[in-house]
Amino acid sequence: MEITKLESLIKLFGQSNLGKLELAEKDLRIILERQSDTTTLGIKPVEPVSSKPTSSQTTVSLKTETIINAPLVGTVYLAPEPRKPVFVQVGDHVQKGQTLALIEAMKMMNEVTATTTGTIKKVLVADETVVEYDQPLFELEE
């Protein structure tokens, strides 16, 4: 998503009465949510914000979520070997390119890697289950 589109979306959300807005585009998900007392944005606000929040101020929290999908059909393994710890679990911070799981297809092991740096929000599959091409496997929050 282009930064100008994102800025426009944030501005429109700030002017609306919506409490929460979720937007999904391909493997990118953006959540804008109002909270009380402080302002948190990925970009600078247009209007200056005083250091002491007033009761009329609201928080806009920008969270970007990325879905990691299966690159092929096969059996997913969440650990490198049986009875070994899983590659990642909910709450783990991962780096771009880090191995998250393995998918076995035609007796070949294929790595599923993080497409971006972030935190594992959800594991969407169980160990040793068959997955389809493009099936969501993990949800990352940037």
From TrEMBL:
<keyword id="KW-0275">Fatty acid biosynthesis</keyword>
<dbReference type="InterPro" id="IPR050709">
    <property type="entry name" value="Biotin_Carboxyl_Carrier/Decarb"/>
</dbReference>
<dbReference type="InterPro" id="IPR001882">
    <property type="entry name" value="Biotin_BS"/>
</dbReference>
<keyword id="KW-0092">Biotin</keyword>
<dbReference type="InterPro" id="IPR001249">
    <property type="entry name" value="AcCoA_biotinCC"/>
</dbReference>
<keyword id="KW-0443">Lipid metabolism</keyword>
<feature type="domain" description="Lipoyl-binding">
    <location>
        <begin position="65"/>
        <end position="141"/>
    </location>
</feature>
<dbReference type="GO" id="GO:0003989">
    <property type="term" value="F:acetyl-CoA carboxylase activity"/>
</dbReference>
<keyword id="KW-0276">Fatty acid metabolism</keyword>
<protein>
    <recommendedName>
        <fullName>Biotin carboxyl carrier protein of acetyl-CoA carboxylase</fullName>
    </recommendedName>
</protein>
<dbReference type="GO" id="GO:0006633">
    <property type="term" value="P:fatty acid biosynthetic process"/>
</dbReference>
<dbReference type="InterPro" id="IPR000089">
    <property type="entry name" value="Biotin_lipoyl"/>
</dbReference>
<dbReference type="InterPro" id="IPR011053">
    <property type="entry name" value="Single_hybrid_motif"/>
</dbReference>
<keyword id="KW-0444">Lipid biosynthesis</keyword>
<comment type="function">
    <text>This protein is a component of the acetyl coenzyme A carboxylase complex; first, biotin carboxylase catalyzes the carboxylation of the carrier protein and then the transcarboxylase transfers the carboxyl group to form malonyl-CoA.</text>
</comment>
<dbReference type="Pfam" id="PF00364">
    <property type="entry name" value="Biotin_lipoyl"/>
</dbReference>
<comment type="pathway">
    <text>Lipid metabolism; fatty acid biosynthesis.</text>
</comment>
<dbReference type="GO" id="GO:0009317">
    <property type="term" value="C:acetyl-CoA carboxylase complex"/>
</dbReference>
